[in-house]
Predict the structure.
Amino acid sequence: MKKIAIVYHSAHGHTEHIARCIRESIQKIDNIEVSLLNAVELYDQPEQLVEFDGIIWGSPTYLGGVSGSFKNFMDSTGKIWRMQQFKGKLAAAFTVSSLPAGDKQSTLLSLFVFSMQHGMIWLGNPILPEQHNGVPYEEAANRLGSWSGLMAQTEHNSSAESFAMGDIKTAQIFGQNFAQTLQQFNI
């Protein structure tokens, strides 16, 4: 049985909603156990993550980077980094912002560098943008065209579940791809 952690921070519920969509898709894969973990609750015990084979990081994009709360969590992993306890584990990331671009790429790159510093194996987003095949933009998987990780967008001050159908579809495919890829590794 492979174990996946989805570690996220969500101030308004949007990032948590995408995390839940990813988790739901992973739960459909045999021989995978998935846990949803709030980064704030891991500040004092980030070593809980050492038991997982793969970790998906999730943060909203605030001012071009991860949220302050997620950054505090990242900084709390110093001891894990010194001992390289995440080395060889599969990693991926997702982010949410209220604008279509919103500098989400900067957030994903920050999470990529964080994972590389920990010696993790990065898995990007292999989903082809479906709008190029005639799927309406709002319904298209990977409509925002991100390869480094999952990007989702929702309107400012909208409800936590208010996402384009394409972003929900992307989250589901992203989670399934992560789980299926993890199964191929002898981690």
User: Anything to note?
Assistant: The chain has one domain: 2-184.
